[in-house]
Write a structure and sequence with these properties.
heterodimer; A: mainly alpha; MetI-like fold; two-stranded antiparallel sheet; two-stranded antiparallel ribbon; disordered N terminus; B: mainly alpha; 3 domains; 72% helix; 0% strand; globular; Carbohydrate ABC transporter permease (chain B)
Chain lengths: 358, 309
């Protein structure tokens, strides 16, 4: 970013000097400049910036997707769509709050999982004592380039009630759940092991956004865990590459020096590798966080929000409300709230990352 | 393949010296052996976890429905059944899935998007890297801003604009919106910036116009970036799903992914024909897998370019 700014600035400085000598060429260059970027600019304006503005307008309408949203047929309802989403008690707010809860757990577990797994993969693949590392790197990255649809179909099979995952679990004596029909939250399950089966009074009575605190603290449902496993598996290859780039930037001399100084493997990891990898970690967390909030394809194929709406996500609500129920205004409003959430999180993440580095 | 590692390794001092010191002072050979054993153990486990599911997928596609349910883990179908693949190939008169239609649509869209992106990205990348024109900074900022827009938020906006332009349910509507490719533009821009400006100037002094300079002199020098953009576009549009979901409703326009998704999330839900579904999933993965085998280096490079911007 900084590099670009400087370059722009220096281009501006050299500009006037050259203009005197070859003004004809400069004129040609200017015209060519616009001609060259024109296709890109047209495509971006028509299919990206304009649609976003249109959607912003539609989110203020009660529009069913039939007529043109600009003809005046659709009623202008102001911020009503946003209100029914965030403020007014009702089915929509209930669904939206559930989807936020689901996604918060999804994000929490997915981001943690993906950072740990991809870091571990990167460490192993970067380890100099092992041979065939590039071969293994190719294998670990393969799921990342496969389509989410194909992978979702595969996981639907793996996580069947009597599927591969449960068969493997039964080898170690674990009786696997019926993954895609089990709406119980994992925190609730853990609590039930300690005899807490129903909500303690205070948690059941206090509610936030129409959802009781007991429900907020459910943890991801069993079905959601299958979804989380899928994303960790499918995206860890990509993040492994980010970590790999970071690891290869650590000077070997530094590692060797600490090794000679007698630092153990764990100490080296804790006091040398981790601090030097902070930037990579912040980057991976940010990217994983952003993509986690957008989960859609997998939900569409694996669960459609079921069981008991525990895999409902904002993106899926936005799609179903619009294309299923014909409430495009509501769908667009959900999209913008989601947009806002992602932007705020990115900014917070950036700020936290910067703070620590300083 | 290991371009990254190799280049770095070359600059390093011989590695032999240090481990010898280590083993002498602290622990004899066993420690190094232990590290290796653990390392290979982890690699084996990882391979099982990352490759295993794909093996299960291919194996299951050759099973009968009953065998797939009864022995999901087994990698050897018994009996071996090509029933699923016969349906895929269209040679089962009783039951057919329009696979060739889906494949055709996928190829048409993927190839068009890739060609379009190559042209748009390299032109824009060159202009942003080299040409001085008013508004360049604004265009550059806009391209960077696009990176920050989460794709899933565009579901409804894209439907709106296609509807408004009368492109809903058309190849144009499937292809044109995918020409938006900020990553590719930035990738090309970076590549052009690495080419010395002297070359442009030499070409100009020889009397070449801007386009001629771009096309015959500079573009051939950024071939690796062009390959990266090609692969990135091919993979991205072949795997694309949500855009086609909102841009079409006509089954005749379904791509491989859309067809499989509709089949899985709807029609066959009750009957659970997993061998068929997994045969389709395998088929849809094959083109990507082939490209990956030959160009994995470029895949990895593009993966990094996407994020580090």
């Amino acid at each position: 970013m900084t590099a670009t700014v400087t370059r722009e600035a220096s281009a501006g400085r050299t500009g006037p000097v050259r203009r005197r000598g070859i003004s004809g060429h400069l004129r040609q260059e200017r015209r060519a400049g616009w001609l060259f970027v024109a296709p890109a600019v047209i495509v971006l304006v028509v299919f990206l910036f304009a649609p976003i503005l249109m959607a912003a307008w539609v989110s203020l309408l009660d529009w069913n997707g039939q007529s043109s949203p600009f003809s005046g047929d659709a009623e202008f309802v102001g911020l009503d769509n946003y209100r029914s989403l965030l403020v007014d008690a009702g089915l929509l707010r209930g669904d939206f709050m559930l989807s936020v809860r689901n996604t918060v757990y999804y994000v929490l577990f997915n981001v943690t999982g993906v950072v740990v797994v991809s870091f571990a993969l990167a460490m192993v693949v970067n380890s100099h004592v092992l041979r065939g590392r590039s071969f293994f790197r190719t294998i670990f990255y393969f799921p990342a380039i496969t389509s989410s649809v194909a992978i979702s179909v595969l996981f639907l099979f793996l996580f069947q009630g009597s599927g591969v995952v449960n068969v493997v679990l039964s080898w170690v004596g674990v009786d696997g759940p019926s993954w895609f029909t089990d709406p119980r939250g994992v925190l609730h399950i853990v609590l039930s092991w300690f005899g807490v089966d129903a909500a303690p009074g205070a948690l059941a009575e206090t509610s936030l956004g129409g959802l009781s605190l007991w429900d907020w603290f459910s943890g991801p449902s069993v079905a959601m865990c299958a979804l989380i496993t899928l994303t960790i598996w499918a995206s860890s290859g990509t993040f492994m590459l980010f970590f790999l780039v970071g690891l290869q930037d650590i000077p070997v001399e530094l590692e060797e020096a600490t090794a000679i100084d007698g630092a153990g493997a764990w100490q080296r990891f804790r006091h040398l590798t981790l601090p030097l990898m902070r930037r990579s970690i912040v980057l991976v967390v940010t990217l994983a966080l952003i993509s986690s909030w957008q989960v859609f394809d997998q939900v569409f194929i694996l669960s459609q929000g079921a069981p008991a709406k525990t895999t409902l996500t904002p993106a899926y609500i936005s799609y179903v409300r619009s294309f299923g129920d014909g409430q495009f205004g509501v769908g667009a409003a959900v999209a913008f709230v989601l947009f806002a959430i992602i932007i705020v999180l990115t900014l917070v993440q950036r700020w936290v990352g910067r703070e620590r580095r300083a | 393949m290991s371009g990254l590692t190799l280049r770095r390794r070359a600059a390093r001092p011989p590695r032999e010296a240090v481990p010898v010191v280590l083993t002498d002072r602290y622990s004899p050979l066993p420690r190094k052996v232990l590290v290796r054993v653990i390392g290979y153990g982890l690699l084996a486990l990882g391979t099982l976890l990352y490759l295993g599911p794909f093996l299960v997928q291919v194996a299951t596609s050759f099973k009968t429905d009953a065998d797939a349910v009864a022995n999901p883990v087994s990698l050897i179908p018994s009996p071996v059944s090509t029933a699923a693949w016969e349906i895929v190939a269209g040679s089962n008169p009783a039951y057919s899935v329009p696979v060739f239609r889906w494949l055709g649509n996928s190829f048409v869209v993927t190839i068009s998007v890739t060609l379009g992106r190559l042209i748009i990205d390299s032109l824009a990348g060159y202009a942003l890297a080299r040409l001085r024109f008013r508004g360049r900074t604004v265009v550059f900022a806009a391209v960077v801003a696009v990176l920050a827009v989460p794709g899933v938020v565009l579901l409804i906006p894209k439907f709106l604009v296609l509807n408004q332009l009368g492109m809903f349910d058309s190849y144009a509507g499937m292809i044109l919106p995918l020409f938006c490719d900020a990553v590719g533009i930035l990738l090309m821009k970076t590549a052009f910036e690495a080419v010395p400006t002297e070359l442009d100037e030499a070409a100009r002094i020889d009397g070449a116009g801007v386009f001629r300079t771009f096309w015959s002199v500079i573009l051939p020098l950024v071939r690796p970036a062009l390959v990266t953009v090609t692969i990135l576009s091919f993979q991205g549009s072949w795997n694309e799903f949500t855009h086609f979901l909102v841009a079409t409703s006509d089954p005749d326009l379904a791509t491989m992914n859309l067809g499989i998704a509709r089949l899985t999330a709807g029609d066959l839900q009750g009957s659970q024909q997993f061998p068929l579904k997994l045969a389709l999933a395998t088929l849809s993965t094959i083109p990507i897998a082939i490209v990956y085998v030959f160009f994995s280096r470029y895949f990895m490079r593009s993966g990094n370019a996407t994020g580090l911007k």
